[in-house]
Amino acid sequence: MLTLFLAWAGLQPMPAPAFENDVPLADPAMEDRARELSRLFRCLVCQNQSIFDSDAELALDLRRVVRERIAAGDSDEEVTDYLVVRYGDFVLLKPPFKPRTYLLWLGPALIVALAIIGVAVFFRRRSQVAAAPLSESEQARLAALLDDEPSS
Question: What whole-number distance in Å separates Cα of residue 39 and Cα of residue 50?
Fold first, then answer.
């Protein structure tokens, strides 16, 4: 049974990285640069993967653009600037810390701070609520109930 399972497992196709399906650049150093740069850009379809890891058509197109820009002699910064101008800071997996991205970077901390403040206010108000004194009719009813209890 184990042999049959291992034979079956060996026949299963292994997922290949998306970048392996592309036509590489002739210069190995330029190809390495293209691969490294492709790990920095977000797939705009998948949004949680780099274009290096994504199989989406748009990721393939962006990998081609990266290779074309590198082949044209652009530096890494020029390739990055080119993509940011076309797609905005969202194309970067690690967007820069600047006024347009403050909410992106500081948003989680603000949400946690607001939650802590909300919990503190809730418990503070809850502890400040005092029970209203019982009216005379309520006191009489409570005394009657307590008197009716059997003693142990």
Answer: 5
The mean pLDDT value for 18-42 works out to 80
Q: Does residue 82 fall inside a structural domain?
A: yes
Neighbour-count burial for 6-38, b at 16+ CB within 10 Å, e otherwise: eeeeeeeeeeeebbeebeebeeeeebebbbebb
Model confidence pLDDT, tens digit, residues 44-65: 888 788 888 888 888 899 999 9
CA triple 99-40-81, angle to 5 deg: 55
- Contact present, 37 and 79 (Cβ < 8 Å): yes
Give how many domains the chain has, as a whole number.
2
d(CA 142, CA 125): 28
**pTM reported for the whole predicted model:** 0.58
Q: Which amino acid is at 75?
A: S
For residue 148, being part of any structural domain is answered with no
Q: Which residues pair with 42 in a beta bridge?
A: 50
Query: Would you give the end-to-end CA distance of the chain in angstroms?
Result: 70
103-132 pLDDT, tens digit per residue, is 878 999 999 999 999 999 998 888 777 777
Domain span holding position 81: 15-96
Query: Is residue 49 domain-resident?
Result: yes
